[in-house]
Amino acid sequence: IKIMAKIFALLILTALYFSVVICADDKDIVKDISEIEQKKESKMQLMDKHMLHKLDGLVKKVSDLMNENYEMKYYIDEMKHHNDEMKHHIDEMKHHIDEIKRDNNVMKQNYDTKIESLKMEINNSKLLNNAVTEPPFTVYVRWGRNLCPAGANEVYRGYTGGSHYTDQGGASNYECLPTRPQYGRYTSGIGTYSATMYGAEYEV
């Protein structure tokens, strides 16, 4: 019994010893873990501060970019507004220019009409003055002669011509044909409805 009691007491002491050691080791582990956690927390705090600083910088840059974008949009809207105003003014100027052109055309037409009317009045006045101031004269044809009588001036010289007496639809009177005729536009040949011209013959 004494031996068993000693063995039991020895076992109890051994258990207490190991229990104390284990407890001591557990405290060290807990301390180490606590230090690790503190360091980790400290590092996380530093990382959080660093990240927050970076995020603040990014947020500031984004905010600055947004402000610049708003300013640019404002300036663009202002430019569009000014462009619209300029376009409106240009359209108004074009409209006024068109009106001025139309008025000028109307005025030019009126002036041209008045000028032509004045020219006709001047010509009529000249003719009237000539008729009043110049002595009366007579124009006549001297058929079959190549000289004018005394006191008369030659105005026109030519050859006597006319239609054949058997033709129908010809000239009813004699015509004075020029010595050097100037032909206009004509078609060579005899047309369906045409007349012929003959030289006159005088018998003495």
Automatic annotation (TrEMBL):
Which key words tag this protein in UniProt?
Coiled coil, Signal
Asked whether the UniProt record includes Coiled coil among its keywords, one would answer yes
Check the UniProt entry and state the signal peptide residues, or none.
1-24
Parts forming coiled coils = 83-110
Protein name (database record): Uncharacterized protein
Which species does the entry assign this protein to?
Owenia fusiformis
